[in-house]
Specification:
This protein has one helix and 15 strands. The protein is mainly beta. 46% of the residues are buried.
C-alpha cells in the first residue's frame, strides 16, 4: 500500500536521521510558481528563530477565491513542519506535529487580537497574510491525510493568544514577510539549534458541515524535501 502524506511525515518526524541544514528543491513547471519551493532554511540567534523558503514565483501572489461563508472556506499556506514539541508554544505535550504557518483566507478572521491591515477593525483581516502555530495530526477523512488537530477549548491546552476555535491553532501576531520570491517569519522561540524542519505549500479547507475534522489539509502544492522527512536543521547565527 502506498504510504499517505501523513504517514511519511510522521515517519520522518520520528526517525529524524538526515543531516542537511538547508533543503534544496527542484523546480517543477507543473506547479503554480508562487507555491513551487526551491529552497528552505531556518536560523536562530539563540533567542529568536527565523524560518524562510524561496519560491519560483512571487510569494503570496495567489490567495484563495472567497466562497462567502466559513463552511467550505479555503486557506492557502506556506508551512514549516518542525520536530519541536507542541508544548513549547503552549499546546498539549506530544499532541502532534508543531508547524509554523503563513496563511491567507478571505472568508474568516482567526486573529481577533490583531489588526493586520491597520484599519481599526481587528475582525476583518483574514485575507491578509498572517502567522499561526498549528498542530497537525493524521486523519484519513482529509484529502491529504492531515488535519489541524481538533480540540475542546477549556479542556485541551491552548496558548494565551489562541483564538479559541475548536482546533489546535494559535494566532501569536508575528508579522510574516513576503518579499519577491521569499516567504519568511521570525518567532520568539529559543534554543532551537539543530531542530528538524521541512517546508510545505498547501491548501486547507474548513469542513462543509463545520464538524470534525474542522480544518483539513486538502491538497499539497509542494514539499521541499519531496518526502516530508524533515531533513532541514535550524542553524545558529550570531545575534
Amino acid at each position: 500500500m502506498k504510504p499517505t502524506i501523513a504517514t511519511v511525515l510522521i515517519a520522518g518526524f520520528v526517525a529524524n536521521t538526515v543531516s542537511a541544514h538547508e533543503i534544496l528543491s527542484p523546480v517543477d513547471s507543473s506547479k503554480a510558481a508562487a507555491f513551487d519551493i526551491t529552497k528552505a532554511g531556518a536560523t536562530t540567534d539563540g533567542r529568536l528563530t527565523t524560518f524562510a523558503m524561496e519560491l519560483v514565483g512571487t510569494a503570496g501572489s495567489i490567495k484563495p477565491t472567497p466562497v462567502g461563508q466559513l463552511a467550505g472556506a479555503k486557506v492557502e499556506s506556506y508551512v514549516w513542519p518542525t520536530s519541536l514539541d507542541p508544548e513549547v508554544v503552549g499546546f498539549d505535550k506530544a499532541s502532534g506535529i508543531l508547524s509554523l504557518a503563513i496563511t491567507a483566507h478571505p472568508d474568516f478572521d482567526d486573529t481577533p487580537l490583531f489588526d493586520e491591515d491597520q484599519d481599526g477593525d481587528p475582525a476583518n483581516d483574514g485575507a491578509d497574510w498572517h502567522s499561526h502555530w498549528v498542530v497537525l495530526v493524521e486523519d484519513a477523512a482529509c484529502g491529504a491525510g492531515l488535519k489541524v488537530r481538533d480540540v475542546s477549548p477549556g479542556v485541551d491546552l491552548l496558548p494565551a493568544t489562541a483564538p479559541y476555535l475548536p482546533i489546535a491553532l494559535d494566532s501569536p501576531g508575528m508579522s510574516p514577510t513576503l518579499d519577491g520570491r521569499t516567504a519568511k517569519i521570525t518567532v520568539p522561540v529559543s534554543d532551537t539549534e539543530n531542530v528538524s524542519f521541512d517546508a510545505v505549500t498547501a491548501e486547507l479547507q474548513v469542513n462543509e458541515k463545520t464538524e470534525v475534522p474542522l480544518l483539513c489539509v486538502t491538497g499539497v502544492h509542494d514539499v521541499a524535501s519531496g518526502n516530508l522527512s524533515l531533513p532541514g536543521r535550524v542553524t545558529a547565527v550570531e545575534p
